[in-house]
Amino acid sequence: MTYKLSSRHIAVNLLLLTGISVLAGFAAAMCWWWLVLCLVVFIVAVSWKLVKYVATGYHQITFFIRAIKNEDTSLRFPDGTGSRNMDELHKSLNELNEMLRDVKQKSRIQARFFSEILQNIASGVMVYNQNGFVSATNSAMRKMLQIKVLTHINQLERVDPEFRRQLDMLEGGQKKVLQIVVRDEPVQVVVRCTQIQLKDELVKLITIQDIQGEMERKELDSWIKLIRVMSHEIMNSLTPVTSITQTLQQMWKRNDFNTTWPNPELVDSTIKGLDVIGERATGLIRFVESYRMLARVPDVHPENISVIALFERLSILTSPYKEASETALVFRYPVSPFEIRADEQLLVQMVLNLVKNAFEALVNMVDGTITVDCHPLHNAHFVLTVSDNGPGISPEIASEIFIPFFTTKANGNGVGLSYSRQLAGAHGGTLKCTSVPGHTVFKIEI
Fold this sequence. Notes:
Layout: H1 2-29, H2 33-69, H3 84-120, E1 124-129, E2 134-137, H4 139-145, H5 161-169, E3 175-182, E4 185-198, E5 201-210, H6 211-254, H7 264-292, E6 303-306, H8 307-317, H9 319-323, E7 328-331, E8 339-342, H10 344-361, E9 369-376, E10 382-388, H11 416-426, E11 430-436, E12 439-445
Parallel strand pairs: 7-9
Antiparallel strand pairs: 1-2, 1-5, 3-4, 4-5, 6-8, 9-10, 10-12, 11-12
Helix pairs in contact: 1-2, 1-3, 2-3, 6-7, 10-11
């Protein structure tokens, strides 16, 4: 509509100028100079008006294009200019501006949507160009590499120079199993590389997945399923045995079978045997119940926790261990107070399990010391360690200490470390152990 009106307006003015020019030529031929002068003035006025009309439209369109280039979609042209043609032009530009604003808003929503997906996936993701500048990375990648900000791949030199070199060798479509050494701790990962052409720029999309962590989660899930099945079957068998045993005990004690039973010793032996059966069945039920908690992961309710307040609470709760042992328990309070985010009840339970195990490992040791420490990491994450100077964990069993039911203690049930690792996993974190003679460290990273 705007184009038709503008074309019609220009055509009318051009026809008018043509007609007046012919008339001026005729007047000049007749030597009507006064008429020629009037017509020339009229021609100049119409030409000026036409030039102004075209220049105004050109100026408005140019101004609109510049605003779009500057990503300014707040521009709005007035409606009531007194010119129908200009009003139509302004209306069309405003409609186009609204369309561009909607597209821009949808793009922002889509970008935020993909950004949230990127930040919440478990695999590490990094995008960088041929010059090594990183344009995108997610929290999983930064957490895996233990780095706060990643803007250039050269920063990986400070993490693991060999890993940085391996990234340079990766080509599009390749997948490799690599090992990253982060703070002296090796992590086995699967690295995938994809090359993407973005306009005139070729970028690499790198995804990293922690193999060990994934295997631990799958292993734990398998144990949980096994425990659920075993607990169900054992409880279904034990419950009627316990009930029948109790009924028989009551009947024999009342001597319901025969009031003149000739052999009292047989009655006493039978009652004692039933007592033993009942006790063992009840004990077995309690034993199964202790393992069923592995199959019931509690809900995690994260909150901000002061590390100083956490250590003070742990110091009180560990008082019985300290009073019953000569081992020293040291809490390293932070110089600068900070907060961590976790479920306080579950975190306390994890630390108490680790401290209890450390006390038991140092029970016969002189000058034994247990140290509890906590350090903040990037993006509100933290690492809490429980270390001791005990004899350490034998390499033969180091890989089995987190397996449910595994224990080296005479009275242990093999649940504590497995359950603690499960609680750490429920937080989205990990529980790991490194041990050499004289220095054992359990590290909770959330």
